[in-house]
Description:
The complex is a heterodimer. By secondary structure, chain A is an all-alpha fold. Chain A contains 19 helices and 3 strands. Chain A has 4 domains: 6-28 and 138-220, no CATH class; 33-135, Cytochrome Bc1 Complex, Chain D, domain 2 (Orthogonal Bundle); 238-356, no CATH class; 358-411, no CATH class. Chain A has helices at residues 6-27, 33-40, 60-63, 66-74, 76-81, 85-93, 106-128, 138-175, 185-195, 197-220, 238-244, 249-252, 267-274, 285-295, 327-333, 338-342, 345-348, 359-368, 380-390; strands spanning 297-298, 303-304, 313-314. Chain A has a two-stranded antiparallel ribbon. Chain B is α/β, with parallel strands linked by helices. Chain B is built from 32 helices and 44 strands. In chain B, a hairpin with a 4-residue loop joins strand 2 and strand 3 (103-111). The longest helix of chain B is centred in the first third of the chain and has 20 residues, at 49-68. At the A-B interface, helix 13, strand 3, helix 15 and helix 19 of A face strand 1 and helix 30 of B. Strand 3 (313-314) of chain A pairs antiparallel with strand 1 of chain B, so a sheet runs across the interface.
Amino acid sequence: MKTFSLPIFSLRFFVATLFCFLSINNGFAQPDGEALFKTNCTQCHSVGKGVVIGPDLKDVHKRRPQDWIIKWVHNSQTVVKSGDKYAVDLFNKFNKTVMTPFNLKDEEIKSIVAYIKTESEKAPVAAKGPAAGAEEKKGGNTFLYLLIAAVVLYVVIRMVSRVQRAMEKVLRHRHGLPEPVPVKATKRFVTWARNNKKLVAVILIVLFVLGNVKGWYLLAGIGISQGYQPDQPIAFSHKIHAGDNGINCKYCHFGAEKGKTAGVPPANVCMNCHKFIKEGSITGKEEIAKIYKALDYNPETQTYGPNKKPIQWVRVHNLPDLSYFNHSQHVKVAGVECETCHGNMAEEGVANQYAPLTMGWCIDCHRRTPVKMEGNHYYDEYHKKLLAKFGSDSLITVERIGGTECARCHY
Amino acid sequence: MSDKKYWKGIEELHNDAEFVRLKNNEFFEHLPVSEQLEKKAQANDVTPRRDFLKFMGFSVAAATLAACEAPVVKSIPYVVKPEEIYPGIANYYASTFWDGYDYCPVVVKTREGRPIKIEGNELSAITRGGTNARTQASVLSLYDSARLKSPMVNGAPSSWGTIDSTVTAKLSEIAGKNGNIRILSSTIISPTTKKIIEEFSKKYPGTKHVTYDSISYSGMIKANSESFGIAALPSYRFDNAEVIVSFGADFLTNWISPIEFARQYGEGRKLNDGKKKMSKHIQFEPTLSVTGSNADKRIPVKPTQQPVAIANLYNEVARQTGGMAIAAPDAGELKNEIMEAARHLVAAKGKALVVARSNSSAVQNLVNGINVLLESYGNTINLNEANLTKQGDDAGLKNLLAELKEGKVSALFIYGCNPSYTLPNAEEFNTALKRVELTVSFSDRNDETASNCKFICSDHHYLESWGDAEARSGHISFMQPTIAPLFGTRQFQESMMTWAGIGNNYHEYLQQNYADGWQAKLKDGVYQKQADGASSSIKFSSGVLTAAATGISSMQPVGGMELVLYEKTGLGNGNQANNPWLQELPDPISRVTWDNYLCVSPKDAREKGWNNNNVVTLKANGVSKDVPVYIQPGQTPGVVALAFGYGRTNCGKVADNVGVNAFAFARLTDNGMTYWSPCEIQKSTKDDYMLAATQMHHTMMGRAIVKETTLEEYIRKPNAGNPPVVIPVHKGHEEEILPPNKVNLWDSFETPNHHWGMSIDLNSCIGCGACVVACTAENNVHTVGKAEIGRSREMHWIRIDRYYSSDADPKEGVKPDTGQLKKMEEPSDNPKVVFQPVMCQHCNHAPCETVCPVVATNHSSEGLNQMAYNRCIGTRYCANNCPYKVRRFNWFQYDGNEKFANVNPAFHTNELSRMVLNPDVVVRARGVMEKCSLCVQRIQEGKLTAKKESRKLKDGEIKTACMQACPTHAIVFGDYNNTESELNKMWKPEERSYHLLEELDVQPNVFYQTKVRNVEPKES
Lengths: 411, 1020
């Protein structure tokens, strides 16, 4: 006799597929507004934290229509030149600072606006206190609800199946039927599977697809160490140096404008300040003493000894050897801000890998970012040629000058 | 002095107890693998399948897991950063390459304090930025793992302190009993070093300095002394010479000052900017040399015929110019050639030059006589500015050897030379050496001589040294260290200073001699002293001619075979034999790598039934050696030739037991060193010995791969030899003739900013191979060794094809079905030779790009055919589809591969030696294709510099490695889009410019210039 009821199984199956599709949907997410905002906008804008270089974008969706925002982001000067009053006022208000044009897709800008919208609604809550901390991650809640739903469903299913079994027993007892010989769970499962071949096939196909999708994303993530933040031999805080004390990044990472590597500063650069600053606000003398040790420096007598030992920092950004990256090209020629790739180190503290450093990430930026050609005489003739080709008010992105060709980075 | 050691980690540095325990234990925990396997094996003879699967599964899982975790990489900055060093930015220092044999003022490129590339110093009046293969390769010799890490005493490592006290004590003892102290060195061109030797001699009065060059020019110096009273070699001006006649002098790659002469020669041969004049070059020589292969007319002669020919040439020139005749034997078959050479020489009187490779003063006196009659002195030869790079004194050497034999020498210091290898009677020398009380070698390695010496005071490499060099009187160049000494070596000069008691700081000592503007001089690397006054006039004492004539008539021709010894372009005298780049550089003529061989003329080979790779026993001067045969077109019948530099026994992993030592066949006669001798050859019973050559085909099979014409035709019609290529097509029912680009299917590429290209002038390319080694150094090209080259797997990105002319009718070549194609493959017995450097042609319609299944090779908007190694999956379709065969496949993981440890210890196993790698170019892994990138790393760097300085990119600012290395400026790299560029001026398809295999219309960005020969129409 069949001891399995289809409705209950169907319910189980339904829950399983529900999970699958939810996961897949997560996999094929829309443009990530948060990531886009952080990569492109944070240098000049904040949400609810006041003016940085450009205006605070809190509630921008209430102030301006979405179409206007899209036009503005693509090229603010076109909007200003069109005589739009709001635009002209805004431009004048910010001392005629031109906003960098962004070659973003419309959906991407929309997703940024959506992100700003959620952030704007959150912003006042955040100001109220730490209670809002629980709502840090967007995806976290959905998962929790699903988990609860799953548990509830499981309990219901168990209960229903027990009730059913009890009722069967009662029925058998009433009709004087013998108790069925207990069948092993595995055997029961095999029998069931034989009788429901189509269903099994569907489940297997779904699991296969799901496994592939998950596996694909898992594999694609190998070798990407975004967020890598190893322990360093000295508890150096970028927050104290670049944030609180406002030291320019390029004071220590002086190679950034000159050559290939920005460079970890040599210990003698530390001594420019730490000859006088012998005690830190957080770690006291302990960490600064490590610099002295490396240089074999005696702070009492202010003399250097001969036993110098280099500080062995742990490298955070490990670009593979097969790609050539030059800091000066980006920092000096293109004028890219350090924050674009390294995040806001002034608030971060310990060095970490902010960007994924994948080729896709490089190319995305090259496709989007316009080249700073004006004022650089190298580009004089080339710029004219490009404007003639692409139209005088078009954006000359890095891609358009061949910035996505193989041999620009791989040789 | 440095006592640097290299540790694998901090634990090793501290020598922790735990580290010591684990050091010898590869696996930290006990692994029961062997027991497991053993137990099962006892039970069942075959390895159980389950166990196999278990282990395999475990390995796969372990490997996968290990691969997932990124290793922790350290980033170690300077503690105190030197002001001039920025990580990632190259620094350049002027220095001088001098190893007692080759001289070249250089600019050394360093990255993070390690020298990685050598360029020529353009400020030098002598070389003007030219280099040769040996100079280019010298940077790798710095990282040679065979170099001694410390001084040695009796074969055991020692310290400088011990050595100094022992040697000084011994010297005082010898000086006390008036013992003879001898310094045997190669030519010293450093005035300061000579001063130190003087100081040393003052302190130890029994000291005598003997100069010995492995390849001697002693006879020539003697001749100049007899002829003019000036005991020195003159400097030459090949660029001023309209007619050059050379008797066996390979002045383009080996003779006296080859880099200088190559540049001058190139200037005289160029036909740029509408120039319609070029020098005429006639070469009489026994074996085909690089110089001979560039000659307009080349006459094979035997070594014994050469003096006769020179005497007859003298008489003929004297007859025409009214000079005194001398007695000369009959020239025989050479009569017409000599008459013709004389005619050309006399016609160009005052602009003619005759040179000869001969160490006989009689012969050189005659050459001097000819040059006097031709008024060459003051025009093409300058005796007032002596060339000081060859000062070897054969008589002095002979004396020293006699003294040694008699046991009269108490102390012998050997510097810069390796007599146990380069002396013909090395065994005798070695025996005598054992009787000397104090023997000190300054060799950088435990070489043939050093291993027979009690003390080895290992010298620095030149890139670690201070120094000065006066290669031509009045022209000083400097040497400065570009890296701190890698090992515990000490500079020769400092050792001598210590023992002479004049301090131990050579740097300061040197500086004192050039006090004024030391920094500026050092920065430029070269400076010219003020001339001492008016140049003295040359007086020729014609009495020497009669004596010379007598000397020559006594040189009786020998009946049998004659052996001539020569220097190869790669190894030269074998100083840098342990340098894999030079070993792997194909000989420009034979294209054979990693070996020397007996060059045999095709006629002799036919008659004696010898084939390539047959082993023969060569007997001469009582020495007998087995040598493989190589049939060399152009070789004089009856003459065989063997190259120096090979057959080292104590040089290092790379050089040892490669080839045979030709120095053993040289003779030290009363007239000095003689580099030819009568010989006997017998076929050996040994199996064939495989020679690894990079070119199997010797002729162009009737195709116009290298286009050539004669000067006369070129003047008449600038596109002579370069007719437009056309393709017949159908137009309706008619046939139409169209240029290839009109029948092309492909769209053209846009190159809006730059359009890179290259011009190669076949008229001034001499085939010397400097570009090949430069490219190897710049682009981290792997060395693969003889076995792999034997499988045609060489990795050079640029090759220099050498083609011989064939006597067969070219029309026979076009009908393969008649079976007459074979005939075209046979080079003439004395062929015309052409060289053609071929690298990736960077086609605009590249056949390789269309067949790559993963688009790993594609086109850039600057006209480059770019190759993304990390995208390549190694199908090799591109290499198959490339009409120029310039793509190279990595058959192995050469990098770090023990299998290739003997081929290139520098790249393959030794961590220290990987320091020579260019950090801007990726080291290619197994299974990917690679090829010339037109030095894209230099292009990118050049553009970036211009952008950073906000200015237009200047023409000539970016130079590819091959262009920069070329001594004759035959290679020009540039931008087609820059209308002012030199490249654009070179591109004249209506004159000499053409694309290789133009009929394919792959539209290369590299083009060639037709070769023009200065020959009479009937000769062509």
